Each structure stands twice: as structure tokens, then as C-alpha cells.
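2024-03-11 09:14:02 DEBUG pipeline.ingest accepted 1 chain
2024-03-11 09:14:02 DEBUG pipeline.ingest length=472
2024-03-11 09:14:03 DEBUG pipeline.predict start
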Amino acid sequence: MSAPSPSPAPGRNRKVLGRLSLPERTFVTDALRTETVGGVLLLAAAIAALIWANTPIRESYESVRDFHVGPASLGLDLSIEHWAADGLLAVFFFVAGIELKREMVAGDLRDPRAAALPVVAALCGMAVPALVYTLVNVTGGGSLDGWAVPTATDIAFALAVLAVIGTSLPSALRAFLLTLAVVDDLFAILIIAVFFTENLNFAALGGAAAGLAVFWLLLRKGVHGWYVYVPLALVIWGLMYNSGVHATIAGVAMGLMLRCTTRKDEGERRSPGERVEHLVRPLSAGLAVPLFALFSAGVAVSGGALGEVFTQPETLGVVLGLVVGKAVGIFGGTWLTARFTRASLSDDLAWPDVFAVSSLAGIGFTVSLLIGELAFAGDKALTDEVKAAVLMGSLIAAALSAVLLKVRNAKYRRLWEDEERDDDLDGIPDIYEQDNPAYHLRMAEIHERKAAEHRRLAEVTGGASEENDGPA
């Protein structure tokens, strides 16, 4: 198997959203495949929660959601909803930590020039929604506590939308969306850690830090075995929860500690981080996140409640932040980065494509719901209203992006087919071998073989024709 041609070095003529290198494309394809399946499950769980919470059996939903379980002596007598938000989402953030580590050491974020685009786009895509929310609530006299709610992007839900509408989005745009979500998750984690931490228990925090140090030392010593790391991870999580810092931070910290580079001298084909991510990602996308959605998305969505979403400053700020702030922020950040780094957009794409993907990032479901719960923890009614606003904003963003992407879907399909074509059947898309002399030699041999087969077929057909034309 011939090696793919290297990606062009960044420079004056660097392309924005250009073709991915073959290894990066393979990783993105595998990661997004799992996220898409998880996104469909997430969508199904959210719909199930809404149906369950808006039918005559609503009381059963509330009783299950509010049922407490866990050792009270360890400070872990929590409701099912609480376990889903603090426990299951720690698995989600663990995977996010591995993704972030991989991007920083082996992906787009390791090159400062390449990293500038998704980092600036993600920062603008968080700052502008927060600004939109703040402006709406300052002018409307609402609470500023929810400024962070519309800042998050839910990659799994966004990919579920792509799967439902059936668009053939090119891998460069999908990778851009994935990298945006990784950077977005990082800043969401920082927001949760800095702005939603109160009443620190320094003894528990010190214990969690000591546990993380042991976790790191075991990794560096090459100790193997899930039976070592899983119990230690549970202890670290429990201590982090009792420290007052949101427990999902423990998941991120452990994910960032995993090594995400391969050691060629030891014959490694995949790094430990990639192996663990491959094992844990299905658990995160297929179980943890859907269960969180099931116990967090169940809010009343009557006509009156939906109407109030557009009249209260807090909820209106969330909707506008997701729909308008995300699209404008990410698109503006991308355009400014391209403008001031003298980079040009890929020849295969246009700026409306970037805006369509930016609007898709307005789907802020999972982390937005979590931040909404944290921001208005003392007001159950407002928490439910903000959750309804997150659902409404995500739905509008999904519908808007679906329309924008469908308009260009014929173009996307041609690009996708070009990316997938493998005429020489060597397992490497032809687009990555066009500068390889060996590829052209193989293709010439294939064409010659097909021409020979065609000549033989013509001779056989001609011979049969002559026999038919002879005397009876």
C-alpha cells in the first residue's frame, strides 16, 4: 500500500477547510460514525423524555427522575437525574478529554497556524452567544446567570441531524465541526469549573488531586488492567464531587492524562488513548449521553410554555444565543481568521457552506442543558423554562441548517463521491494518490486490462454474429 501524499505545509497560500490528510480523514470518519449513531440515540431519548413528561404518566417520570439512590455516608445519596448529570456525563467528558489531548498532540491543534482557525471560531462561537444573551437580559431586565447556557455545541445531536436529513457533507466540513466541538467542550469545561464551583471542600479536593497523581503515575509506569483504573477513577470522581468542583472535571482530567501518540519503536499501531477511546466512546455516545437526555429533557412543552420561551428575557436570550449568536460567532471568527492570516477558502467550498455549518453548531443540547441546571439550580420553574428554550433553540438551529445544507447537497454529494472513489481498489481513495507515479501505473494497467477484455468480448460477439449470418 502506497503512502498518501503529505498535506501541504501551512503558508501564505494555505487553504481554509482544505482536504484532510488520509490518517486524519480516517480518524474523523471512524469518530463521526460512532457519534452519529449516538446522536440518533440521543435524539430518540430526548423525544422519549418529552413524550413521557407531557402525557398522563408524567408523575411516573418525575418519581423515577427524583428517586434517590447511593451511599449517604459518602455524600452520594443522589437522585437519578443527578447521577445522570454528574456521573454519566463524566464518561462523556472523559472521552472529550481524550479527543482534546489527541487534537493537541496528533491532530489539527498541534500546529499553531492550523489550530488558529478552530480555536478562534470556537471562541467567537461562545463569546457572541453569551453577548447576545447578556444584551437581551440587560434590555429586558432578566437574570444574567444564564449567560453560559447558549455557549455550548452538541456534536452528537448535530451529527444526528445530518444523518436524518441525509446530507453528504464533505469530510473537511465534518472535521471542522468535530474540532469546533472539541475546543467548545474545553471552554465549556473551564466555564463549569470556574463559574459554577462554590463552597470548596479542600480536603476532598486534595484527595482528588492525589488520586489523579496516582492515576498519572500508573499510566507513566505502563501499568495495565481495567481493574486498576476503574476503581481508582470512581474514587477520584467521588472525591471531586464532594469537593464542590463539578464531578465531570474528573473525567476530563483523566482523559487528558492518557498518551495519544504511538511509539513506533515498540510497534504500536494505536496509542493507549486511541484504544481506550475506541472502547469507551460507544459507552458514552450509546448509553451515558442518551440517559442524561432522558432524565434532563423531560420538560412541559405546552403551547403556552412554548409561547413564553419568546417572551421571557432569560429564555429568549438562550434561543437567540443558540440560533443567531452561534452562527454569527463561528462564521465571523472563521472569516476573520482567514482574512488576517491571508488564507483562502478551499476551491471546493464557498462561504455559505461555512455559514450553514456554523448554524448547525447552534444545536447546544447536552452541555447547554447541564449548564442551565447549574445556572438556575435554586429555581426549578426557571430551570425547566430554560431547558425548554434550549430545546426550542436547538430545534430552530437544526431546521435552519437543514435547509441551508440541503440547498448545496448536490455539490456535497459530488465532493463526497470524489473523496470515496477507489478505482484501483487498493484501499486508498484515488484523490490521495493523484501525485503518486505508482498510482498512474496501476491505473494504466487496469485500463489496458479492461481494453483487452473489451476486445475479447468484441471478438466473441463478432464471431457469433458471423456464424448466425452463415447458411442455415
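2024-03-11 09:14:41 DEBUG pipeline.report Residues 430-467 form one domain.
2024-03-11 09:14:41 DEBUG pipeline.predict end
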